[in-house]
Amino acid sequence: MSNDLFRNKYRIPSARADWHKYNVGWYYITICTDKREHYFGEIIKQTMHLSPIGTFTKNRLDELHLIYDDAAILSYVIMPNHIHMIIAVEKTNKRNGSNNNDDVNEEMQHIARQCGRLSHIISRFKSFITKHARDNDIPFMWQTRFYDTIIRNPADFIVIDNYIKNNISNWKDDDYYSPSSL
Q1: Longest dimension (CA), the chain
Q2: Separation between Cα atoms, residue 115 and residue 63, nearest integer Å
Q3: In sequence order, what are the beta bridge partners of 15?
Q4: What value does the mean pLDDT of the chain take?
Q5: CB–CB of 60/129 below 8 Å?
Q6: Which of the pair, 107 or 165, is modelled with greater confidence?
Q7: Are 86 and 27 in contact (CB under 8 A)?
Q8: 154-159, long-range: CB within 8 Å, 24+ apart, which pairs?
Q9: In this structure, is residue 3 part of a structural domain?
Q10: What's the pLDDT score for residue 113?
Q11: What residue ranges in the chain does DSSP mark as E strands?
Q12: Cβ contacts of 141 within 8 Å, gap of 6 or more
């Protein structure tokens, strides 16, 4: 039973498929901001106007393939309070497979390895954005965790990609919609 607990205190069960390792595949990911705050910017006249943290986040998404040689963002949209993306994790990471950063907690590295490569990449991405916000006194927080769907075939990919491409124009119908905080 203690294996089911985190630090022998509590355990939040995973929503991920127990039959999939999340090391290789194509995934539809949604990452939300804490309390669905509009940290990334606002949609005005069906155009997303990025805030400074939104612009930084966009740049990091565009450069993710430079950090991870085993992952690529195939499609994404940054909304005021969340991000949708399709990410491909293709093979075992050779260049960045081990983390030589001495200040990273070894226990968290162990947990990340158990959760699969996808969780490791998303966790590091979220941490990078959070660190930038803190270093620059930008108010910002993520919701814990993220939502994922395994993309199983080309037809699923096309439906999800179209959803992402049309998300800004369908903002008021989005599950994560909230009125502008301006």
Answers
A1: 53
A2: 23
A3: none
A4: 82
A5: yes
A6: 165
A7: yes
A8: 157/26, 157/86
A9: no
A10: 53
A11: 25-32, 41-44, 47-50, 71-78, 82-89, 147-151
A12: 33, 34, 35, 37, 39, 130
Whether residue 174 is contained in a domain is answered as no
Residue labelled with tokens 């947990």: 111
- Cα gap 161→153, rounded to integer Å: 12
Domain span at residue 163 reads 21-168
CATH number of 84's domain: 3.30.70.1290
- Tokens standing for residue 47: 């155009």
Q: Using CA atoms of 136, 85, 49, 66 in order, give the dihedral in degrees to the nearest 10.
A: 50
For position 94, what pLDDT does the model report? 52
Helix-strand-coil percent breakdown of the chain, rounded to 5?
Answer: 35, 25, 40
Q: Is residue 125 part of a domain?
A: yes
With H, G, I as helix, E, B as strand and everything else as coil, classify residue 130.
helix
Between CA 160 and CA 155 the distance in angstroms is 9
Do the domain assignments include residue 34? yes
Query: pTM value?
Result: 0.78
User: DSSP class of residue 12?
Assistant: P
Buried b (16+ CB within 10 A) or exposed e, 103-134: eeeeeeeeebeebbbbbbbbbbbbeebeebbe
Query: How many domains are there within the chain?
Result: 1
